[in-house]
Every structure is written in C-alpha cells, then in structure tokens.
Amino acid sequence: MEKNNRFPFEEDNYTHNINRNNERKLDRRGFMKTLAGAAGVFAVSSLPWGALAAKELMGLGEKEYPHQKITDIAAIPIGDSVEFAFPGEHDSALLIRLGENKFVAYQNACTHLRCPVYWVKAEGEIICPCHHGKFDVKTGEPTAGPPRRPLPEIIVKVEKGAVYAVKVKRYEG
Amino acid sequence: MKAKNMRFILMCMVLFLNIIFTQKMVHQYFYENYKNALIYCALNLVIFPAALFLYKYDVKKLKGADRG
Ligand code: FES
C-alpha cells in the first residue's frame, strides 16, 4: 500500500488488482476437468443431430409421393416429350419417350441456374437455352456448357397404358 | 510411462475423438447416411461418461500423492 500510494502507480504490469490465488494458472487437474466438461458439451450438442437422423430414418426419410399419372402412352409418340409437374405443382419436369417402352423423366430445371430445359428431338439432346447447356438424354448427365451436375431423375413406371411418376431419385454426389 | 501421464494422454484422446466423431456425424447427416450419423452420435454420447469416469479416477488416484 505504502508503495503504491502515489499516482500514477509505478507498477506497469496492470495486474496489481488481481488478488485471487492462482487466478491465472491452469493446472493439470483444471485441464482434465475442462476436457471432461467439453466431452459433456459435445455429447449434449450431438443429441439434436441424432434425433434428426433418427427421425429421417424412421419414416419421413424416404419421401414417397403418391404415384402420379403423367400421360397416356397413346398420347405421346416415340421421340416426343411432355411436360408435367412432380412432386410439387411447381416442380416442372420433362418426360421423354425414347422407345417403344422406354421412358425417361427429369426435373427440368437446369442445374446451372435453373432455367427450364427442353428436349430437342432433332439433336437427341436436352438443351438449356440460357447458356447452351446440354444434357445426355439417357442419364441426365451434363455434356456441354456450364452445368456440372446431372438433372435430377424421376423414376417412372408404365402401367395399364399410362406412365406414372414414382419418385425423385436421390442425388449421389 | 507413468500411469498419471497415461491418463492425461487418454483425456486428450477423448477430446480428439469428440472432434472427429462430431465432424463425421455432421457430414454423414448431410450425405444422408442417417445410420452412420446415428452411430457417430452414439459414440459421442458414450465417450462422455468415459471421460467423466477417467476424471474421477484421476482425482482419486492423485489424492494424497503430490499433485502436478
Ligand atoms: S441455366 Fe442452363 S446453362 Fe445456364
């Protein structure tokens, strides 16, 4: 006290007012304690992820939409396409008849910037008019232009002279 | 190696595993491998009691002995 009665203090360590014992010391035990606590925090914070994953596994996961009729087979000649919406009414999609019994369907938002893509019969390719992106009609893989990911494929089923959309194939990157 | 240091290293391993499992869990979740995500979540949960036990055990062992 005596020494510090003048102003300004002579001490220059700025810690003269810290009095608690060992305030700045992290000893071995303190460290162990911190790690144990951290493990607890990790455990608690992984709970919601587990819950979400479980929920996804239990039912909500496989999104099966009700099968939706796209068109009658008689109404679509080989090599032609029809537009439809699946699974929602704003998710426009494209069905292409490639052969007698061969149908493919894709969601027709370009994987570049979501322009609608078109089936060009003469060239045998799916074409995006925006930046001249092209997609392979059999697989949906991009073959030219800016798109890098395939078009999401819709699995279709032929039944009683009509084509039905079953579900959207999961994207596997 | 002294058992004391062994416990210390084990504790560090716990933290290391925590980080790895969390990272894996989140990634598996977004890759839609929900089963794997659940497995990593369980691992993360199991590791906590283990760490707690390790800590308690350590405190007990060091009681009386010189602390360092
Ligand atoms: S939006 Fe289709 S190529 Fe750019």
Quick tags:
heterodimer; A: 173 residues; alpha+beta; Rieske Iron-sulfur Protein; six-stranded antiparallel beta sheet; four-stranded antiparallel beta sheet; B: 68 residues; mainly alpha; 2 helices; elongated; binds FE2/S2 (inorganic) cluster; 2Fe-2S (chain A); 2 iron, 2 sulfur cluster binding (chain A); oxidoreductase activity, acting on paired donors, with incorporation or reduction of molecular oxygen (chain A); monooxygenase activity (chain A)
Describe this structure in words.
The complex is a heterodimer of chains A (173) and B (68). Chain A has 173 residues and is α+β, with helices and mostly antiparallel strands. Chain A has a domain at 64-169: Rieske [2Fe-2S] iron-sulphur domain (Rieske Iron-sulfur Protein), CATH 2.102.10.10. Helix content of chain A is 19%, strand content 29%. The radius of gyration of chain A is 32 Å and the shape is elongated. The mean pLDDT of chain A is 84. Chain B has 2 helices and no strands. Chain B has one domain (3-62). In chain B, helix 1 (3-30) runs antiparallel to helix 2 (34-62). The A-B interface holds A 27-29, 31-33, 35-36, 38-40, 42-43, 45-47, 49-50, 52-54, 56-57, 61, 170 and B 7-8, 11-12, 14-15, 18-19, 21-22, 25-26, 29, 32, 34-35, 37-38, 40-42, 44-45, 47-48, 50-52, 54-55, 58-59, 62, 67-68. The site of FE2/S2 (inorganic) cluster (FES) has 11 residues of chain A, from loops.
Total count of domains of chain B: 1
Q: Please trace the helix and strand order of chain B, writing H or E for each element.
A: HH
Note the total helix count of chain A: 1
Helix/sheet category of chain A: alpha+beta
- String of helices and strands of chain A: HEEEEEEEEEE
Globally, the shape of chain A reads elongated
Named at the architecture level, the CATH assignment of the domain at 64-169 in chain A is: 3-layer Sandwich
- Spatial separation of the terminal alpha carbons of chain B: 16 Å
The counted number of beta strands of chain B is 0
GO molecular function (chain A): 2 iron, 2 sulfur cluster binding; metal ion binding; monooxygenase activity; oxidoreductase activity, acting on paired donors, with incorporation or reduction of molecular oxygen
Protein name (chain A): Rieske 2Fe-2S domain-containing protein
Domain Rieske (chain A): 68-165
Pfam families (chain A): Rieske
